[in-house]
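Friendly challenge for the regulars: who can give me the C-alpha cells for this chain first? No prize, just bragging rights.
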Amino acid sequence: MKVYISGPITGHPDYMERFSEAEEKLKEQGHEVINPAKVNANLPASTTYDQHMTLDYIMLDMADAVCMLSGWDKSKGACIEYGYALAKGKIIINSYYGVKNVDNGSRKVTPEFGKKILETLNPKGIFWFEEGAIFIAVDNTQSEMFMEEFSDFENCQKWIRAEKCVDSNGNEHFD
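First reply, four minutes later:
Bragging rights claimed.
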C-alpha cells in the first residue's frame, strides 16, 4: 500500500526526524511511502504555503492511505490534509497504534496488535486484522470476547455489521 505521511511541520524543528522515523517504520511493514517533508525540503525557499499545499494534494492523490503523526490535530496543514483524505476515501492510519478506521465503526489493526487484543482483551472495541489469507474479526465491546475467522474481507465486514455471512469453515452467522 502507498502511504502518505501527514503531521505538524511549522513550529516543530524535529519534523524531518519524525517524518523519517515514520517512513522507516512504514517501509518495514512493506509499504511504499510518500514523505512530503523530504519532497518539500527540496523546493525553492520562495515556495508559498499554498504552493506547498497544492503539491501535498497531488501527493495525497497518489496514496492509498495517510499516516497521521502525533500532534496532527493541532496543525492547520495536517488538519486540511486529513479532511482532504477523508473526502477522497483514503485509509487513515493512526501512527500510535497502526489502526485503520472503517466506516462501520470497526478498526483494522496490525496482526501483532490484534494478537495483543486477543491475549489481553484490551482495548475494548470491534477490530479486524489479516493473518495471511485469513481475515479475523474481534468484538470485545462487552464482558465476553467474540472472534471469527473469514476467508474474505466482505464476510468479515458483514459479521462486524451483524449481517448474514459465512466464516472460513463454511458456518453461517446471523441467519
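Residues 2 and 32 are 5 Å apart (CA to CA). The chain has two domains: 2-96, 103-173. Your move, everyone else.
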